[in-house]
Amino acid sequence: MGSGKWSPNTYQARAQKRQTTGQDAFAFSRQASAVHPALNPYGLEVRESRDTDEHPDSNAIIVGLDVSGSMGKTVRAIHKDLPHLLGLLQGRQYVPHPQIMFAAFSNGSCDHVPVQVGQFESDNRMDENLENMILGGRLAGGCDIRESAELLIYLAARHTSTDVWEKRQRKGYLFLITDEMAYEHIKANEIKDIFARDIKKNIPLQDMIAEASERYHIFVLIPTETSSGKDPKVREFYKAYLDSKHVVLLENSDDVSETIALTIGLTEGNIRLAEGLAHLKESGASEATINELSKALSLLDTGSVRGAGGLADMDDKNGGGSRRL
After folding, report:
1. Which residue from 66, 78, 106, 189 has the fewest beta carbons nearer than 10 Å?
2. Bridge partners of residue 221, in order along the sequence
3. Which H/E stretch holds residue 267?
4. pLDDT per residue as tens digits for the range 213-223
């Protein structure tokens, strides 16, 4: 996948049609009783991010969304901000040929739809993948407060194939957006039930992160608006597995798209933080957003300049420094 070009005109036309008819962008979620066929991980072999004539220097980006409970707001915020996200990535050349795969997770132990997986897309099919996600609370009881971000790490490690790594030995990106801790093991029975794949035994989370980190820069974005997001246990959980600069706290979940874009630009070494914040200001971002991201992303501002490499080059040369094991 990964052909075509994302069009803001197509996005706006579809949004205008929904407004005219009074349809919710996430109407599928209201009526669905099962995962959308295009997002079903059962029997999944591989999701591919490939170079094309239109995109000769593709970069694979996975956005993994916690869709449980109040986190559904974040999914809507990203969908609303797609023109801004693509405008920064492509228009500002943070990464010129992004191929974005939207995926969703909730609780693998008890949720009816624990994982939903789109394709790597360069065009407006990424909009549709978001719109076909089921949002909201659990359809079964008995779970604890964790959500299964570890299943998205497994997905990235075992079920993706990307030209950015296979041709250029450069990493893609995996963003996990959640306000809950993950589980400390990838459970063999859940992989069987969700992906129809057999693994011999449970895999420790640190081992799965190490495997995924070989090909992806992993970032966890934690919205602190919710009571869970405010809990220091959540941030400390992820900091035990990842370098501190890869665990980003956000006061406002509406700023997730801007955070993703600037994180990629900074990691690639294509912008300084001040430059990225100036871009946000030019696009009409609020002073509160600019101040928040100035604080949240300060650790990623390495002093690199466009064309001189950055955290991406440093991590690749060091064998994947986006993890702390």
Report:
1. 189
2. 177, 248
3. helix 256-268
4. 999 999 999 99
Instruction: Give the 3-state DSSP-derived string for 190-258, with helices as H, strands as E and coil as C.
Output: HHHHHHCCCCCCCEEHHHHHHHHHCCEEEEEEEECCCHHHHCHHHHHHHHCCCCHHHEEEECCHHHHHH
- The C-alpha atoms of residue 272 and residue 148 are separated, in whole angstroms, by 33
Q: What is the DSSP string of 105-147?
A: E--TTT-SS-EEE---BSSTHHHHHHHT---SS-SS----S--
Calculate the average pLDDT of the chain. 89
Segments of 150-204 assigned E as strands: 160-162, 172-177, 185-186, 203-204
d(CA 303, CA 298): 11
Place 297 in a pLDDT band, splitting at 50, 70 and 90: very high
Residue 221 CB contacts under 8 Å (≥ 6 apart), including other chains: 175, 176, 177, 178, 248, 250, 256, 259, 260
Residue burial 22-37, b: 16+ Cβ < 10 Å; e: rest: eeebbebbeeeeebbe
pLDDT at 293: 96
pLDDT score of 5: 83
Amino acid identity of 240?
A
- Tell whether the torsion through CA atoms of 94, 95, 98 and 102 is positive or negative: negative
Q: Report yes or no: 188 and 201 within 8 Å, Cβ to Cβ.
A: yes
pLDDT of residue 50: 96
User: In angstroms, rounded to a whole number, what is the distance separating the alpha carbons of residues 155 and 136?
Assistant: 22
pLDDT at 313: 56
Per-residue model confidence (pLDDT) at position 2: 56
Q: Is the pLDDT of residue 186 over 50?
A: yes
Do 180 and 221 form a contact (C-beta atoms < 8 A)?
Answer: no
pTM exceeding 0.90: yes
- What whole-number distance in Å separates Cα of residue 123 and Cα of residue 302? 31
Distance CA 152, CA 148 (A): 8
Pairing state of beta strands 47-49 and 160-162? parallel
